[in-house]
């Protein structure tokens, strides 16, 4: 909605952001109520069992640590930046972080789609292929996105925020791996939840948050905004590594199926194209980049026969 408003009016401010956010929340709640209204009407509070509540609390309460750790990683660096560099630098940093977070959100949608199917097949020991699929399609979306964003960072920042925030482009390389690491962390987090290791999820994120605070205090005075980006990237990398240690025996990572190197190679070729644009409009370049990338991953046989068959059925629909 925000993007549509900007395209139509070429203007946006904080009031419109909060207004559209509020409308989205209201609309989402209305549709949720309409969808679940029959279940809500039929719900009988006498059916609630104490044992189920206790198990639910035992499972979910440790996730408070996860929420606190995630909030610290996302927010605390802003306060440290403000302390050392001032509020203007916080705004510059926040722009880059927000743009890369949009890429993370898209990747999170992929893993979110696979999550219920992985959960369904977990007890049948048929989850391995689904986890690999979740990783593969997350990489297929995020890697070309971060390559394209890096190659067009100045144009994208000027298009969205104007030349005033062009300094944001100079710190992109410090944060560029953050969406990839965070997206893979989400997949690991889902596996740990299926193992009912919620305490472990909480501890890992608290350790990552503590590391983030230390790194920000060490790196920001020396490297400025780039130091904050590096601190965030390392923090998510530590969380990913910590989670991987505990789930590596739960499924077999099939690199021959995921084909990460082909995905990276196709993304880099696409990046070369968008880097050498001359007079083309940014939107046209992005569309052409997407077309080139899709063509390359098809030529590189990133998809196997079963995946191609599914795609053909979807296209026919």
Biggest β-sheet strands, sense, barrel? none
**Domains counted in the coordinates: how many?**
2
Kindly, what is the distance between the CA atoms of the first and last residues, rounded to a whole number of angstroms?
27 Å
The helix count comes to 15
* Helical content band: over 70%
Return residue spans where pLDDT drops below 50 for at least 5 consecutive residues. Answer: none
Structural class: mainly alpha
Global Rg: 22 Å
| H/E topology pattern | HHHHHHHHHHHHHHH
Query: What percentage of the residues does DSSP assign to strands (E)?
Result: under 5%
Based on Cα principal axes, name the global outline: globular
Mean of pLDDT: 83
- Count of DSSP strands: 0
Kindly describe this structure.
With 317 residues, the chain is mainly α. The chain folds into two domains: 189 residues, no CATH class; 59 residues, no CATH class. Helix content is 82%, strand content 0%. The model has no long low-confidence stretch (mean pLDDT 83).
Blueprint of the fold:
Layout: H1 2-9, H2 14-42, H3 50-60, H4 63-85, H5 87-122, H6 128-151, H7 153-161, H8 172-175, H9 178-194, H10 198-223, H11 225-247, H12 255-258, H13 260-275, H14 282-299, H15 305-316
Give a quick summary of the entry.
The protein is an all-alpha fold. It is 82% helix and 0% strand.
Task: List key phrases describing it.
317 residues, mainly alpha, 0% strand
């Amino acid at each position: 909605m925000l993007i549509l408003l900007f395209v139509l009016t070429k203007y946006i401010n904080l009031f419109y952001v909060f207004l559209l956010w509020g409308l989205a929340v209201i609309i989402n709640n209305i549709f949720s109520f309409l969808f679940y209204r029959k279940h809500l009407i039929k719900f009988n509070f006498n059916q609630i069992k104490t044992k189920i509540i206790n198990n639910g609390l035992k499972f979910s309460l440790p996730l408070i640590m996860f929420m606190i750790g995630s909030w610290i990683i996302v927010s605390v660096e802003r306060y440290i930046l403000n302390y050392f560099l001032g509020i203007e630098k916080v705004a510059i940093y926040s722009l880059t972080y927000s743009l890369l977070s949009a890429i993370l959100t898209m990747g999170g949608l992929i893993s979110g789609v696979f999550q219920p199917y992985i959960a369904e097949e977990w007890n049948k020991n048929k989850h391995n292929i689904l986890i690999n699929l979740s990783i593969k399609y997350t990489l297929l979306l995020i890697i070309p996105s971060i390559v394209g964003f890096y190659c067009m960072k100045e144009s994208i920042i000027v298009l969205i925020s104007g030349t005033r925030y062009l300094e944001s482009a100079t710190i992109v390389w410090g944060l560029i791996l953050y969406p990839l690491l965070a997206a893979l962390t989400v997949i690991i987090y889902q596996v740990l939840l299926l193992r009912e290791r919620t305490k472990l999820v909480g501890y890992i994120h608290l350790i990552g948050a503590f590391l983030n605070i230390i790194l920000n205090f060490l790196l920001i005075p020396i490297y400025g905004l780039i130091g904050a980006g590096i601190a965030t990237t390392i923090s998510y990398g530590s969380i990913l590594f910590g989670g991987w240690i505990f789930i590596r025996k739960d499924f077999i990572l099939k690199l021959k199926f995921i084909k990460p190197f082909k995905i990276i190679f196709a993304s880099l070729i696409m990046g070369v194209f968008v880097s050498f644009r001359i007079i083309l409009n940014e939107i046209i370049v992005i569309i052409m980049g997407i077309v080139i990338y899709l063509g390359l991953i098809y030529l590189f046989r990133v998809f196997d026969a079963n995946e191609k068959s599914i795609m053909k059925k979807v296209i026919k629909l």
